[in-house]
């Protein structure tokens, strides 16, 4: 269902200030429809499989690793790392590519960032493709890190809470922040392993690798992933509670497709439904046999179908 593997025709690094340097790559057709892929987490990174969501003959595909993630440097840095910084980075990359407007694609945290960017810069967005919608509301964070998903995965939840004190278990995000920012690397590594394992065990209906690509021993990439994700969640993703749904009216005139797994335990469909109702002209596609991971077959089918349909609509309008 994916397009064939391709290699970038251009790779580079962009100094965005504040000590951060972003890795980016351009793939596909240099004269094609511009699209930017926003990876999840926050804290993971983009990979070769993400290039394959787009027809390389029709799209000019920009992928980049967000601040502190993947091949961007310094790895795991929390300073000057907020949603506002990331939105500014997207604009810097758009100007770098010379695109006046582009299609924005994001899943999970990438959907959060895509919505925030599109609401701030609707004149720069030709359309949105969102998967596994997360908007950063307190009720969404509480579902996954207090009570909700824990009722479906009690044994995994117990392992998630194991590194925390009895008092810390009342607010796991805050308790993990203390561990993930501890001076002792061993403490950070143990916490990062438990943090990422909880997400990995709940992300899919099938036994497939975690969508973020974080697995194995708690190396530097795993620690960075957990630190950045926890950093954003500790700060309520640096947005006002409910902001992205309340301000969905800013997207009037911006077409969008929302792809949502029916049995998504990480970001349940109620958020995608609320966004769809608040966003005039959006299309919601519920995948009946899927969880949260983008790599589940039904979800992939819908995502590739969406990129193909947008290509047909946007060709000649770039």
Give a structural overview.
This protein has 318 residues and is α/β, with parallel strands linked by helices. The protein folds into two domains: 10-136 and 239-314, Alpha/Beta hydrolase fold, catalytic domain (Rossmann fold, 3-Layer(aba) Sandwich); 139-237, no CATH class. It has helices spanning 48-51, 83-97, 109-120, 138-145, 154-161, 172-180, 185-202, 220-234, 243-246, 269-278, 297-314, and strands at 10-17, 20-28, 33-38, 59-64, 102-107, 125-131, 256-261, 282-287. It has an eight-stranded mixed beta sheet, sandwiched between helices. The longest helix has 18 residues, at 185-202. The radius of gyration is 18 Å and the shape is globular. It starts with 9 loop residues before the first strand and ends with a helix. The model is unreliable at 208-216 (pLDDT under 50).
């Amino acid at each position: 269902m994916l397009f064939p593997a391709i290699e970038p025709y251009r790779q580079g690094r962009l100094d965005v200030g504040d000590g951060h340097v972003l890795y980016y790559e351009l793939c596909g057709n240099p004269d094609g429809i511009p699209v930017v892929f926003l990876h999840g987490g926050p804290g993971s990174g983009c990979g070769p499989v993400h290039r394959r969501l787009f027809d390389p003959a029709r799209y000019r595909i920009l992928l980049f690793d967000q601040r502190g993630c993947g091949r961007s440097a310094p790895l795991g840095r929390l300073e000057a790392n907020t949603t506002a910084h990331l939105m500014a980075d997207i604009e810097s990359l758009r100007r770098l590519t010379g695109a006046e407007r582009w299609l924005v694609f994001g899943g999970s945290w990438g959907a959060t960032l895509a919505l925030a960017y599109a609401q701030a810069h609707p004149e720069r967005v030709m359309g949105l493709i969102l998967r596994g919608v997360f908007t950063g509301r307190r009720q969404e964070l509480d579902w996954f890190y207090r009570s909700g998903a824990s009722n479906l995965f009690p044994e995994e939840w117990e392992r998630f809470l194991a590194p925390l004190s009895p008092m810390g278990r009342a607010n796991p995000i805050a308790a993990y922040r203390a561990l993930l920012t501890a001076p002792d690397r061993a403490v950070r590594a143990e916490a990062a392993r438990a943090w990422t394992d909880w997400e990995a065990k709940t992300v899919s209906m099938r036994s497939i690798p975690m969508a973020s690509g974080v697995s194995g021993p708690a190396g530097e990439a795993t620690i960075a992933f957990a630190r950045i994700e926890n950093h954003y969640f500790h700060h309520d993703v640096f947005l006002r509670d409910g902001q992205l749904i309340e301000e969905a009216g800013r997207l009037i005139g911006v077409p969008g497709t929302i792809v949502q797994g029916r049995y998504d335990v990480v970001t349940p469909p109620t958020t995608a439904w609320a966004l769809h109702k608040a966003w005039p002209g959006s299309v919601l596609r519920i995948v009946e046999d899927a969880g949260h991971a983008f790599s589940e077959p039904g979800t992939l089918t819908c995502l590739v179908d969406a990129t193909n349909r947008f290509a047909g609509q946007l060709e000649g309008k770039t």
